[in-house]
Amino acid sequence: MPPMSVRELVALGTSSAVPTARRNHNGYFLRWDDHGILFDPGEGTQRQMRLAGLSATDITRICITHFHGDHSLGLPGTLQRIARDKVPHTVRAAYPVQGQKYWQRLRHATSFVDTDVVAPQPVGGLGSCLLGEADLRITALPLRHSIPCYGYRIAEPDGWRMLPDRLAAHGITGPLVGRLHKEGEVTAPDGTRVHLSQCALPRPGQVVALVMDTAPCPEAVELARGADLLVIESTYLDEHAHLADAYGHLTARQAGQIAARAGVRTLVLTHISERYDAADDARFTAQAAQAFDGTVVLAQDLDRIPVPRRRR
Asked: What are the residue boundaries of the Metallo-beta-lactamase domain, all occurrences included (predicted)?
């Protein structure tokens, strides 16, 4: 498992429907402390994970946005690798319930010695779908695409930032600090009751959102609301906006507009059409930046993109 406190996105693949010489099919791995969330494993995901120094044991959850091949054809190999490597922990797998038949086909695509650690967790409906973790709030919302497609929001619960000067003023030291943080109230050495709000400030939890194939829609903005890191498809440039509209995709500019409306901190563009080459890369970030004044990153295969530090 990855070391505690590491929070980063590993871009395993950044192409769209067709892989290219420099962009593999989709695949995104989010390290989050002791969680390892694999999104949309397309073809070649096993190899890309190996190149990135990741193993099947690092995966604690899989999230599939939809069952188009570039987002899911790497699933059989990934699941078989989980079985082959005898991963000991439960691996929950979220996917659109409307694609249950595709899940079944991919889950049992070929003959292999199976494992019982993979736990299906289909998502569905028009509203939020919460996927439980003890220390994370994972939300799925439907997007606007040609087949059922869900985006995901990974949110850390809000917490508190302890203030040393206020702790000292109230005589709170040593184990009392931990108790105050955990219990919300303690008795100080002088006998007074001290509340957490007297010695700490609210600290918003970190948020990562992943929005794949979609036309512009309110749900994309809601998933990205206040996100520290938004990973979003930007399949086309402005001159091909008509194709984005026809196929239920976004341009880089539209991705920037969503990020701006949602108040995102760092925008990561991905899912790039095979029609573009390296000479077009700067145009993606430039067009997104015309709509969004935060940090814009055009993901490349095997990039490691840190989740920004918590807001203060």
From this structure: 23-110, 203-272
Show the CA angle centred on residue 198, arms to residues 197 and 201, nearest 5°.
Answer: 50
Q: Is 68 annotated as a binding residue?
A: yes
Q: How far is CA 188 from CA 148, 195, 197, in A?
A: 56, 10, 14
170 is in an annotated binding site: no
In this predicted model, what pLDDT tens digit does every residue of 243-283 receive, in sequence order?
A: 999 999 999 999 999 999 999 999 999 999 999 999 999 99
Instruction: Please tell me the distance from the alpha carbon of residue 116 to that of residue 133, in angstroms, as a whole number.
Output: 19
213 is in an annotated binding site: yes
Residues tagged active-site:
70
25 is known to lie in a ligand binding site: no
Beta strands in 88-135 (DSSP E): 91-96, 118-123, 129-132
pTM of the entire predicted model:
0.89
Q: How many other C-beta atoms are found inside a 10 Å radius of the C-beta of residue 108?
A: 12
Domain ranges of the chain: 7-158+204-306, 160-201
Model confidence pLDDT, tens digit, residues 193-210:
999 999 898 888 999 999
Stretch 49-55: mean pLDDT: 98
User: Domain 7-158+204-306 classified CATH 3.60.15.10?
Assistant: yes
How far apart (Å, rounded) are the C-alpha atoms in residues 138 and 260?
Answer: 22
